Amino acid sequence: MFAVSSIPRPTLLGLTHVWTYIDGYKQEIIRTPLGGFINHSDNPNCFLYDSPSFGGSKYLCTVKDIKEGEELTVKYGMYDPTGAEEK
Question: Which pTM value belongs to this model?
Fold first, then answer.
């Protein structure tokens, strides 16, 4: 995924992951289209913000100024949408 215009930091770009709940218990996390197209980098320009006030939903936020045409990236572990280090 690439920026179509320059994006200053910090910018909240949108929802990437939401939890499903049954009877008040977390069941599984669902990735949105935004969450599905962001690539990994060891030197990312974005991070996944975990929002406790929205049930642990995750949002993509920039941590660096991003230039037009630059790829948006996050650091994440395999199968771990929280952005935690690989185990």
Answer: 0.77
Phi-psi region of 33 (alpha: psi -120 to 50; beta: other; left: phi over 0): alpha
pLDDT(30) > 80: yes
Res 17 pLDDT > 60:
yes
How big is the chain, counted in residues?
Answer: 87
Our count of domains for the chain comes to 1
Q: Classify residue 26: in a domain, yes or no.
A: yes
| CATH classification of the domain holding 28 | 2.170.270.10
Is pLDDT at 86 greater than 80 in this prediction?
A: no
Please give the full DSSP string across 25-55, using - where no structure is assigned.
EEEEEEE-HHHHSPEE-SS-SEEEEEEGGGT
Whether 74 and 38 have beta carbons less than 8 Å apart is answered as: yes
Cα distance between residue 41 and residue 54, in whole Å: 26
